Amino acid sequence: MDLSDCSWDGHRAEGLTVANVGRVIPRSGVPGFVILDAVGEEFAPATEYLLELAASDRSPQTVRTYALSLLRFLRFLWAVGVSWEQATSLEARDFVLWARQAEKFVGNRNVPQRRGSRNLVTGKKHLGMRYSSSTINHTTTVCKEFYAFQLRMGDGPIVNPFELRRGRSHAHHDPQREFALVRRQPLRQREAHRVPRSIPDGKFNDLFRRLRSNRDRALVAFYVSSGARASELLGITGDRVNVGDQLIGVYRKGGQLQWLPAAPDAFVWLRLYQLEGGVAGPDEPVWLTLRGEPRPLSYEAMRAVLRRCNDLLGSNWTLHDLRHTFAIRALEGGMGLHEVQELLGHQSLTTTTVYAVPRMEEVIEHYRAHLSSRTSPAADSSPAGQPYNPDELRVLWGNQ
Questions:
Q1: What distance in Å separates the CA atoms of residue 74 and residue 87, rounded to the nearest whole number?
Q2: 299 given a catalytic annotation
Q3: Side-chain half-sphere CA neighbours of 343 within 13 A
Q4: Are 250 and 235 contacting, i.e. CB atoms less than 8 angstroms apart?
Q5: Neighbours of 221 (CB within 10 A)
Q6: CA distances from 29 to 60, 127, 219, 235, 256 (A)
Q7: Which residue is catalytic, options 58, 64, 329, 346?
Q8: How far is Cα 158 from Cα 160, in angstroms, rounded to an integer?
Q9: Is the same domain home to 139 and 285?
Q10: What pLDDT shows up at residue 1?
Q11: CATH code where residue 234 lies
């Protein structure tokens, strides 16, 4: 698509209309997904980049997420009439300015009346109307990697539009001097610090009761008791289910196989599911669709399962909330941070420590208990019963 003869004033991102054109579609084989441009043709430079991601052992879900982020920037370029090869740091800057004030494309799964408000059941915010800081930061990171890849291949602009500061912070730091305060990278947005939320036991039971099949009950039971990521659990095969030791084997980030313990009731639900559809072979997927020709259960299909429950409950729980619930339950049950880190598959302990931060609702509850203990009236320490008879006391003390 030739846009080289289009012009645009790069200082007027405000009010720009970006059309919902282009798509990310699945495709068999590697890389698994491709980007279609505004006229429905494959955007070949992106395909080469996605192939690089797949060759670097990135998961299919990561490849899809990167493709969606790259498409977000491409839509902006198509709107302003700049081809991807001619993008400069001005386009990078104005994309961020546009993304900070633009409204997202609204689907039918989160009506505008609820977007940005707080759910009364979960206490979590619904997705906002605008792009979050983390979404903008992720998009700029993906675009930076995309253009760095094109530079290595000898394509695209000779300067990376998103490489606004070269070098690593403190790369030549003098150990005898204090570290200087380093400002955020250009175009990076401040991100709010969020404490993970778990699903309270009562609300988890409400959610579990809304599940309609033994397959779904088994999956949710495994999610909340093993700590596996959504895609990791969906990818297990028959040879990675050890019923005797109550373990499941998942492939972590980086491709390493790890065996995780799970709750006994999860294996009970799994057995009930197997009695209905049969036991998966060694190389066959455990989780299959229940309608039509059986095929491996996808991430989107599992999200749809949870979405149906949310519609019934008026909640907005996510699959990742189940993983949060596992981590918080494990820590509250007495497990150490390093043990929980191992089960979650975190590379850094710092990532796990976020689960040890007290949540605001817990702080409020403990403080109310503290106030209650201070304002309660002191207990009466006087002996119970009727007072002594004065005449009897005189006899007792010899004053008769």
A1: 10
A2: no
A3: 24
A4: yes
A5: 22
A6: 11, 33, 27, 17, 22
A7: 346
A8: 7
A9: no
A10: 42
A11: 1.10.443.10
- pLDDT computed for residue 7 by the predictor: 43
- Of the candidates 138, 188, 210, 253, the residue annotated as catalytic is 253
Residues 205 and 116 placed together within one structural domain of the fold: no
Q: Is residue 162 part of a domain?
A: no
* Annotation marks residue 193 as catalytic: no
In a domain, 397, yes or no: no
Set 173, 320, 366, 370: catalytic member: 320
Q: Is 346 a catalytic residue?
A: yes
Q: Is 209 a catalytic residue?
A: no
- 240 and 350 belong to one structural domain: yes
Instruction: Give the distance from CA 305 to its chain's centroid.
Output: 17
Asked if 68 and 127 sit in the same domain, the reply is: yes
Strand 23-26, strand 257-261: pairing? unpaired
Mean local confidence (pLDDT), 297-310: 94
pLDDT in tens, 37-80: 999 999 999 999 999 999 998 888 899 999 999 999 999 999 99
Please indicate, yes or no, whether residues 346 and 209 belong to a single structural domain of this protein. Answer: yes
Into how many domains does the chain fold? 2
- Set 64, 144, 217, 323: catalytic member: 323
- The answer, yes or no, to whether residue 181 has pLDDT greater than 60, is no
73: containing domain? 23-153
How is residue 28 written in tokens? Answer: 């068999």
Q: Longest Cα pair distance anywhere in the chain, in angstroms?
A: 123
Annotated active-site residue 138? The verdict is no
| Residue at a domain's end among 153, 187, 222 | 153
Are 205 and 137 members of one domain? Answer: no
Side chain identity at residue 345, one-letter code: G
More confident residue, 105 or 38: 38
Task: Evaluate whether residue 183 is within a structural domain.
Answer: no
Which strands, in side-by-side order, build the sheet including 247-251? 241-242, 247-251, 257-261
Tell me, yes or no, whether 318 and 208 share the same domain: yes
DSSP secondary structure string for all residues of 335-354: --HHHHHHHHT-SSHHHHHG
**From the candidates 58, 229, 324, 329, which is the catalytic residue?**
229
Q: CA–CA separation, 16 vs 20, rounded Å? A: 13
- Same domain membership, residue 125 and residue 51: yes
Hey, CA dihedral for 280, 286, 215, 311, is it positive or negative? Answer: negative
User: pTM for the complete prediction?
Assistant: 0.72
- Judge whether 135 lies within some domain: yes
Catalytic annotation on 203?
Answer: no
